[in-house]
Design goal:
- The chain is mainly α and about 300 residues long.
- The protein has one domain.
- Helix content is about 70%, strand content about 0%.
- The longest helix has 29 residues.
- It is globular, with a radius of gyration of 19 Å.
- The protein binds fe (ii) ion (2 copies).
- The site of one fe (ii) ion has 6 residues, from helix 3 and helix 8.
- GO terms for molecular function: hydrolase activity.
- Pfam families: Metal_hydrol.
């Protein structure tokens, strides 16, 4: 392990945050339903997705032969379980605002629970193969959660445009924890398998699934938004918001691909632990969680 990695290591703990959504408007990026709904897709994908991470990681724990990594994985599980729950809690609010996500979340649940769930495999090679495949898929997805986490921590344009502070805190608390634990999934994959062919193959699977689910989710929200007459979502909208700074740029998204596929890739090269930890020290939700924890102790 390099010095930078060693000095950047932080003990991972779940912060038991909670948010109240009553004040958050439907278009929480004012006047920009496309940006709002593109980011809202996170609330559709992450509850089932991160629950699935936890489910898979509990199965991989017996394969870990390094105490420090096991500790990191346990910390990671705690953080992802909390992320899943926090995003899930936004959905009733969207429903109250006239945007019922159930038809879409039912598909996402099927995707993670059935397609990527435990298959009826006999114990042995096939079962291990499928477990390793999923561990590698999670490492690829975590490349993107770290990318997005780093982006949102630096997305000052959302503040300048008056985005809802509660939603920004949810996104940045989550983003900061993604940056904080960004090496865990990759280190775990390298520890239990690490095959380069598997890394490339599962990256392709994860990337295709993310693009497919995300564009469908954005379209679903735009089409079902009760305030929009002819809501649409296109690649051009994404490109424009990237240039504006309210979403990641398409150039940055494309450039992140060869980084993950490079033989010298390590997630510690992406984003800044210092910035993540600094945000978590100032996040209203994280501060409230810490106070509640101290009060209960
Ligand atoms: Fe997460
Ligand atoms: Fe994560």
């Amino acid at each position: 392990m390099s010095n930078t990695q060693a000095s950047e290591r932080v003990a991972l703990k779940a912060r038991k945050v909670s948010f109240s959504w009553e004040e958050t408007p439907l278009h929480w990026v004012p006047g920009d339903p496309f940006t709002t709904h593109t980011i809202n897709v996170l609330h559709l994908l992450l509850p089932a997705g991160e629950r699935w991470f936890v489910h898979v990681y509990k199965q991989v724990l017996p394969y870990i032969r390094d105490d420090r990594l096991r500790e990191d994985v346990i910390g990671f599980i705690g953080q992802e379980a909390m992320h899943s729950q926090a995003h899930d809690e936004v959905l009733p609010h969207l429903r109250e605002l006239g945007l019922d996500p159930t038809p879409y979340t039912a598909q996402v649940d099927w995707f993670f629970e059935k397609l990527l769930g435990d298959r009826t495999l006999p114990p042995g090679r096939a079962r291990r193969w499928w477990l390793m495949e999923r561990v590698a898929i999670i490492a690829a997805i975590e490349h993107y959660t770290a990318f997005l986490g780093n982006w949102v921590l630096n997305a000052g344009e959302l503040d300048r445009r008056g985005a809802d502070p509660t939603m920004l805190d949810l996104l940045r608390w989550h983003g900061a924890e993604e940056v904080e634990h960004r090496s865990v999934a990759f280190d775990l994959f390298m520890h239990v398998d690490g095959s380069y062919r598997r890394r490339v193959r599962t990256w392709a699977t994860a990337f295709a699934a993310i693009v497919f689910l995300w564009q469908r989710g954005a379209r679903f929200f735009m089409e079902n938004d009760p305030t929009l007459i002819d809501g649409k979502a296109s690649f051009k909208d994404l490109y424009v918001r990237g240039r504006r700074g309210t979403l990641p740029t398409t150039g940055d998204m494309i450039k992140s691909i060869p980084r993950y596929l490079s033989h010298s890739y390590h997630p510690s090269q992406e984003g800044s632990t210092e910035q993540a930890v600094a945000y978590l020290a100032s996040s209203p939700a994280a501060i409230a969680a810490l106070a509640a924890e101290k009060g209960a102790a």
